[in-house]
Structure formats: structure tokens, C-alpha cells
């Protein structure tokens, strides 16, 4: 995944698999909040239905713990990807977004709380990755 800047490619500083894990988890949590019982019975393979089957596996606390276990560079990359997905920065401004995210996270900043406070976090991260011409949807998981 590391790419050379000469080719105008960017090293995101975090693996796509890690981003995909956060995206899947965030979307499942969002689905749990938005889904009623009738919808669960209609689509038993939806993320929300699967969450209902194993609610102890996908909680906000488990996602918070996962993010907290990432190193500071990976946490900053998640924040910068969310900003990119939200449209605050473009791919050409990646280095600046990454630097500002790292500054925001310095001194024990709570990256998990910041990220979990964003509406549609999973979609923002997926859009951030897509801005670089990459897709987490194609990853096997």
C-alpha cells in the first residue's frame, strides 16, 4: 500500500483492512440505532440484524477500544480520512490534513471519542478512501 510521491500516489498511513474494520463496525452501530424490529425481520443478513445476533461483539465500546489500540499515526490517518470524506480536504491536501489530525490528537487527544462523535462515520471513512481512488468495499472480510 505504500506508494511513492513521484507517482502522485499517497501512503495513507493506515491499512485498508483497518479502515474497513472501523467502517463495518461504525455502520453496524449506526444500523442498530436506526433499525426497527420490522426491518430486522425483513433482512436477516443486514448489518443491524447481524448486530442483534451478537450485540456483545459490536458495541460502541468495542469500536472505541479498537481505535484506542491503534498507534497515533493510524488514529491521525482515520481522522484525516474522515475529514477528506466530509469534504474538508481533498486528496491533494492529504499531508496537511494528516499533519493537522496529528496535532489535534497530540498529548493524549481522544481520537475514538472525536471519531465516534461524527455522524455517518463509516460512510465518511469510505468516502475518504474513495477520494484516493481506492475502495474498501472490494476487500475480503
Describe the structure.
Helices cover 60% and strands 0% of the residues. It is an all-alpha fold and 141 residues long.
Number of domains: 1
The radius of gyration computed from the alpha-carbon positions, rounded to a whole number of angstroms, is 16 Å
What structural class is derived from the secondary structure elements? mainly alpha
Order of helices and strands: HHHHHHHH
Distance between termini?
17 Å
Number of helices: 8
User: Beta fraction of the residues?
Assistant: under 5%
- What helical percentage do the residues reach? 55-70%
What does the overall shape look like?
globular
Largest sheet: none
How many strand elements?
0
> Average pLDDT value?
82
List low-confidence stretches. Answer: 1-7
Organism: Siccirubricoccus soli
InterPro entries: DUF3775
Pfam families: DUF3775 (PF12616)
Protein name: DUF3775 domain-containing protein
Topology record:
Blueprint: H1 16-34, H2 37-42, H3 47-53, H4 60-69, H5 72-86, H6 94-105, H7 111-116, H8 121-130
Describe the structure concisely.
The chain is mainly alpha-helical. The protein is built from eight helices and no strands.
List keywords for this structure.
DUF3775; single chain; DUF3775 domain-containing protein; 8 helices; globular; 141 residues
